[in-house]
Amino acid sequence: MCYVTKASVGGRLRIPGSAHKTKKKLNLKGHFDELVRMNKVMLPRPRAAILLSILALIAFSSISFEVRASSLEIIQGKIAQFLKRPGIRSADWGIEIVDPTDNQVVLSLNPDKTFKPASVVKVITTATALEKLGSDFKFRTGAYADGEIKPDGTLAGNLILVGRGDPNLMDPVGDLLPKPTLEELAEKVRALGIRRITGDVVGDNSYFDFNTHSNGWTTQDLKSVYGAPISALSINDNVLWLSARPTQPNQRISVSIEPQTSYFHVRNLGVTGSRKARRTLYARSIPGTRTVVVSGVLPISHRGYWQSVILEKPAEAVATLFKDELVRNGIGVDGTVRVLQYGDMPQEAKRRWTLLAEHQSPPLVKALEIINKRSNNLHAEMLLRTLGAEFAGAGTDEAGLKVVRDFLVEAGIESSHVRLNDGSGLSRDNIVTPRFQTSLLLFLSTRPYFDLFLSTLSVSGTDGTLKHRLASEPLRGTIHAKTGTLNGVASLSGYMTTRSGRNLVFSIFANNFRASVGRIRKTIDEICALFVNLY
After folding, report:
1. What letter does residue 252 receive in the DSSP assignment?
2. Which of 222, 350, 381, 523 has the most CB atoms at less than 10 Å from its CB?
């Protein structure tokens, strides 16, 4: 096995057991001549043939080992050079690469040191979900009646939309759902003959607790799309997409929103400017209100402008969207929209509700593809809380993380140095070690669902967050991995197949670097490329 220490990075990396030794070159012709002589003189032909095959295999295996050992020394020398580059050498590096064929660690640098993993944490969350929930698990979102349905089609009471953590009530990829979930449920309610609701449309958000963010998230995270609020009732990644187009000079611009909803009031103060005007257009939501203000100038020569606005109260927005769908389907609603939060109503009171319609999501593995390939933070956090709700009695971060820890113990993965605060990796308080991460990947490779898990990871030069990385031949398609990026953090962890056909498991972490994240990623990719091409 090859272990690289921090001190050895600046020098030549060696293979233990092979350093300072020169192996004798094998003379295959001599081996075969001797075997032929033995076959003719000493042994019966069948036994000699068997011995010939065995010795030939040993000879070829010896050559294969020497070639791999030589290649590994070349790889190690080049990696040492990579890590000595200005800006690169000041980073904290952690690497472990394992050849599972013979369980050999072929490269190891600070394997037990702790690192911030960023989105590589999603591997832990999605692995736990596959193990615990199963690949065929489906999220259920239901419409319930709290009241009597009269013969004339009147629901004398409230209609409750119960959310259970489905992150894809709207189709984020275009081929996941035959139609949006809320539209489907509204049509099913109408099909039951309901034409009027005397009460309210209630969004039941109590499957998760009321904390909309996780520990260790920064103020900037909370203002960004990638840190959108966590909610059991979520839609469109809990952001509103606003698009604007120019009209005529000095006239109001054209504004539209997605999803279309009565929840928001858009104040359009934007003006179309001349061709030479500078774009100053910007949209902002007024805190504590449902008002979005669009102001500034959009040049007439501009093709368009798009901006996201975070949904501060996702469950309320989802319930309003459901009410809009009911009205579009000819169902009148006398009441208003309101939300039930965690702890607002005892479970006993909910038992009198009557299920009217239910939507079941596609199998879990489809949701995991979005989490791992697109590195969707909100979906990962929703999955963590779903684990808590299903297996630990509460849709909280703490309950979900307990399920994760229990899984790691059951899997026999050493995790005493691991600290997890969320399910997405956005928290700066998460820490893992390269050895832990690689051990988890090795465990997953033995599970019956491994092929499904592998399909959720980004593929080099093909899709997800690796679509534009390691894209040249012969690297394209050779690596299935999860990326991770935060300020001062870059990571890559997964599986690679070398040109010689060997499969490797790897985890590479870089923390506290001064170089640009682009240079760090390039170094990580160069390390992977060396193994793909030379090992």
Report:
1. B
2. 381
User: Looking at the chain, how many residues does it have?
Assistant: 535
Distance CA 245, CA 243 (A): 7
**DSSP letter at 226?**
G
How do 354-360 and 140-149 pair as beta strands? antiparallel
Task: Show Cβ contacts of residue 24 under 8 Å, excluding neighbours closer than 6 positions.
Answer: none
Residue matched to tokens 């599972």: 100
CA atoms of 484 and 122, how far apart (whole Å) = 9
pLDDT string in tens for the chain (535-residue length): 343 333 333 333 222 333 333 333 333 333 334 333 333 333 344 555 555 555 444 444 444 445 566 789 999 999 999 999 999 999 999 999 999 999 999 999 999 999 999 999 999 999 999 999 999 999 999 999 999 999 999 999 999 999 999 999 998 778 899 999 999 999 999 999 999 999 999 999 999 999 999 999 999 999 999 999 999 999 999 999 999 999 999 999 999 999 999 999 999 999 999 999 999 999 999 988 999 999 999 999 999 999 999 999 999 999 999 999 999 999 999 999 999 999 999 999 999 999 999 999 999 999 999 999 999 999 999 999 999 999 999 999 999 999 999 999 999 999 999 999 999 999 999 999 999 999 999 999 999 999 999 999 999 999 999 999 999 999 999 999 999 999 999 999 999 999 999 999 999 999 999 999 999 999 999 999 999 999 9
Return d(Cα 98, Cα 445) in angstroms, integer.
12
What is the rounded CA–CA span in Å between residue 207 and residue 339?
A: 12
pTM of the model: 0.87
**Percent of residues in the chain assigned helix, strand, coil, to nearest 5:** 35, 25, 40
Contact 517, 485 (CB under 8 A): yes
Residues near 243 by beta carbon (within 8 Å), at least 6 away in sequence: 255, 256, 257, 258, 304, 305, 306
Return the SS3 of 496: strand
The DSSP output letter for 307 is: E
Residue 445's nearest CA partner among 374, 494, 372, 497 is 494
8 A C-beta contact, residue 127 and residue 444: yes
Q: How far apart are CA 393 and CA 209, in angstroms?
A: 11
